[in-house]
Amino acid sequence: MSVCAGSGKMIVVRMAKPGEILGLSATLSGRPYELTAETAEACQVSFVKRNAYLRFLREYPNACFKVTEQLSERYRLACEEVRWLGLVRTADQRLAKLLLDWNANAKLENFVELPLTQEEIAQLIGTTRETVSRLFTDLKHKGVIECAGPVFIIRNRSRLEDIAGFETLSTSHGEIHGPTCRESI
């Protein structure tokens, strides 16, 4: 998922997950969708016309609860991203967080398959391709990750979490994983 500026500069914002409904907020609001979707690999895509979707929601009001859940989850994720953009100061922290996030959705523990190029990763974490290349090299030399083509093996998860600034904070609503409060701006 990416967004383009009027100058033509593109920034990768996030990766959509299999089965995810894209354009939900645009469908409900009647406004254009803010992001551009591009597949990283072959996939199947289905389109539903706005009027048909709205008719479906009117006919099946219980589906509105699922839509609300999805929009709430998107809002939560957007808030988390804004929080990270404001609190995570360094490119190595942002890359470490990205690897941990991708690993959280991986089928195998401590394995990360990179679905993006280094240039796209750089756009996603707000740095340059050269910096991403240097950071991967540093992580390999420190024994934090091992590279096998597009697959990375996390060899030292606790060190990667330290780099990301992760600390689990307990709240009345559960746990939050994020940068520690002592790393204030």
Descriptive report:
It contains seven helices and seven strands; from the N terminus they run E-E-H-H-H-H-E-H-H-E-E-H-E-E. It has helices at 24-29, 50-59, 62-87, 91-104, 118-125, 129-141, 157-164, and strands at 2-4, 10-12, 111-113, 145-148, 151-154, 166-171, 174-179. The chain has 185 residues and is of the alpha+beta class. The longest helix is centred in the middle third of the chain and has 26 residues, at 62-87. It folds into two domains: 2-84, no CATH class; 89-183, Arc Repressor Mutant, subunit A. The strands form three sheets. A three-stranded antiparallel β-sheet has the order 3-5-4. Helices cover 46% and strands 16% of the residues.
Concise description?
The protein has 185 residues and is of the alpha+beta class. It has seven helices and seven strands. A three-stranded antiparallel sheet has the order 3-5-4.
